[in-house]
Amino acid sequence: MEEDLDDLFRDDDEDPESEFNQDREYSKEMVVFLVDASPPMFAALDNGGDQHEESHFHVALDCISQSLKTQIIGRSNDEVAICFFNTREKKNLQDLNGVFVFNVAEREHLDRPTARLIKEFDCIEESFMHSIGSVHGIMAGSRENSLYNALWVGQALLRKGSSKTTDKRMLIFTNEDDPFGSINGAAKTDMIRTTLQRAKDAQELGISIELLPLSRPDEEFNLSILYADLLGLEGEDIAQYIPSVGEKLEDMKGQLRKRMFKKRKIRRITFSIVNGISIELNTYALIRPTVPGSITWLDSVTNLPLKAERSFICADTGALMQEPPKRFYPYKGKNIMFTTEELSKIKRVSTGHLRLLGFKPLSCLKDYHNLRPATFVYPSDEEIVGSTCIFIALYRSMLRLERCALAFYGSSSQPHMVALVAQDEVTDSSGQVEPPGMHMIYLPYSDDIRHVEELHMDTNVATPRASDDQIGKATALMKRIDLKDFSVCQFANPALQRHYAVLQALALDEDEMPEVSDETLPDEQGMARPGVVNALEEFKISVYGENYDYEASTKAESDAAKKRKAAAETAAMECAHYDWAELCEGGKLNGLTVVELKYYLNAHNLPVTGKKEVLINRIMNHTRKA
Fold it and tell me: Could you tell me which of 31, 130, 34 has the C-alpha nearest to residue 83?
């Protein structure tokens, strides 16, 4: 059989859609939502004068619903389970009292979210009291421990999957900081001990337990009573979990959603500092462009996903190849055979580890050196103990000395020089804004940097320059319309928002499509402010003058555009009379006149300024690219 020679030595990582180029996460996430359904969760909250009363139970369900809708779009392979505790009815595989696992037909308890799950979950609050019920799970004189049971059920649901490739989490929603407050004595001590031990057992299995505390009106959630020990929090770590008592309900929802969406590591890499000293780092993708999900082909009858398979057929006999095809490369009339292992060794340029080369002042790093979106790195002690201590020492020294580290990193086919830039932690009144760590910036090779071709090459023509007055007026205008505290995260892609809004409406059988606001449209009210209008008018006068007639100028520009279009059409007709490839290969372009050379340039929308040698070089460069 024939082998594609271009494909022979091609590495999988050369694909622009590969894992390395797109920074795809190698792991998936399994989440169990544990929602407290005790009577205090249903108490009405003060919603700032709004007549529509809400409760902490409603807030928890709303956050979970939004999480499921986002997850089914962005991370459809993740698996979730929804578990209520302190319930009248019970529904779980362990048959434990006070725990109800919510699910829909044709779906396992821990499985990928579906449209039917979201649709029925959005309606559960209306029928919750009737079908599931709410009770005080831990009462005096009873040995029932609903929190212990909920942790047990959550741990059992998260048994499948390896903790090395799967991120397992349990998220607890509750407004009760002392679930054992109604009992005393030895019974209380024993329940607290067994509950903490159950949480510890789950954490030792690689399951992280997180709390989303819901503060009651005029009462702060006290983590120190139980949950600080359950989560393993100490000192300052406790303060970041406590939401402000007086914050608005919408702020509370935003804070809960922020905690629910956790940054997941892309991969784990080894950072070799010097010979014999290496540390372990986790890499994270902070900001990446969002694109619509890939199309999944379905069977027209069963509506199940189709699986694509590829088979090789012998070109001589037409028989189906049972053994994997061998690869070869023709050399001096012979086919040199290669095994998979040999090809792997030939293509191996890098081990994939990050190797420190040295340090440079931060001033040496320019904006245009940022070849592609950077990757955030943070230490981990999972495999190499002591990585965090060494990383912190290096990190603090780089901040103090204002240095960036240069390192070598890459896949087997795409090695990269990278710069490691330390980022100090940024916090505000609401908590952490930017985490401490380092950004791994991918540096360009010399061929990646292109020098911009000068537009005005004719030295006999004066290049127009802006006057100091025009520059001053432009600067004043830019200051007026500058966006304060701008961040790319403030603006959503309106096309993608509408795309997913249509999908959501179709999947959930919604009568009305969710409203999508285009945040990229100009701020007309802001542009109409007197300060902006005055600055814009002064800039126009400084550039065009006071008697500038826009309509007359537009008409003149329209006439000029028609002339340019006619000239381009004429040039295209004349250009077709020449075999430019043959002229370039034969070195015959010098025999043409400047007018003839400009036929090619005008036909291909290339600059026509410069001497004859410049025009010839421009044509030859363009034909090579074509």
Answer: 34
Type of residue at 568: A
pLDDT one-digit tens code per residue, 254-282: 555 555 556 667 788 889 988 888 999 99
AA identity, residue 605: N
In this prediction, residue 3 carries a pLDDT of: 42
Q: Render the burial of 60-90: b for 16+ CB within 10 Å, e for the rest.
A: bbbbbeebbbebbbebeebbbbbbbbbbeeb
- Alpha-helical segments (H) within 104-161: 115-121, 124-131, 146-157
- DSSP annotation of 111: B
C-alpha–C-alpha distance, residues 48 and 122, integer Å: 24
Helical ranges in 75-169 per DSSP H: 115-121, 124-131, 146-157
CB 463 within 8 A of CB 446: no
Does the predicted TM-score (pTM) go above 0.85? no
**Strands 354-361 and 431-434, sheet pairing:** unpaired
- Residue 423 — pLDDT band, cuts 50, 70, 90? very high
Distance CA 546, CA 571 (A): 39
The total of other beta-carbon atoms located within 10 Å of residue 161's CB is 17
- Give phi and psi for 248, each to the nearest 5: -70, 160
pLDDT in the model for residue 381: 86
pLDDT digits (tens, 9 = 90+) for 561-604: 777 777 778 888 888 888 888 888 888 888 888 888 888 888 88
pLDDT at position 87, please? Answer: 92
| Contact between residue 409 and residue 415 where contact means Cβ atoms under 8 Å apart | yes
Sign of CA dihedral 575, 580, 584, 586: negative
| Strand extents, DSSP E, 288-374 | 327-331, 334-338, 354-361
Asked whether 34 and 81 are in contact (CB, 8 A), the reply is no
Q: Are strands 415-423 and 403-410 parallel, antiparallel or unpaired?
A: antiparallel
DSSP 205-268: TTEEEEEEE-PBTTB---GGGTHHHHHT--THHHHTT---TT--HHHHHHHHHHHHS----SEE
- What's the CA gap between 59 and 35, in Å, rounded? 11
Q: What is the pLDDT of residue 473?
A: 92
* pLDDT tens figures, 72-128: 776 777 889 999 999 999 999 989 999 999 998 878 888 888 888 888 888 888 889
CA-to-CA dists, residue 592 to 297, 425, 574, 583, 598, angstroms = 56, 64, 13, 10, 10
In eight-state DSSP terms, residue 170 is E
92 token code pair: 């779980």
| 623 contacts 584 by C-beta, under 8 angstroms | yes
Q: What are phi and psi of 364, to 5 degrees?
A: -75, -15
Is the pLDDT confidence value at 2 over 50?
Answer: no
Average pLDDT over every residue of 164-173? 85
pLDDT of 159 higher than 60: yes
- β-pairing, 334-338 vs 79-85, is unpaired
d(CA 221, CA 244): 9
Say yes or no to pLDDT of 607 above 60.
yes
E strand or H helix at 62, and its extent?
helix 56-74
Give the span between the Cα atoms of 16 and 25, in whole angstroms. 16
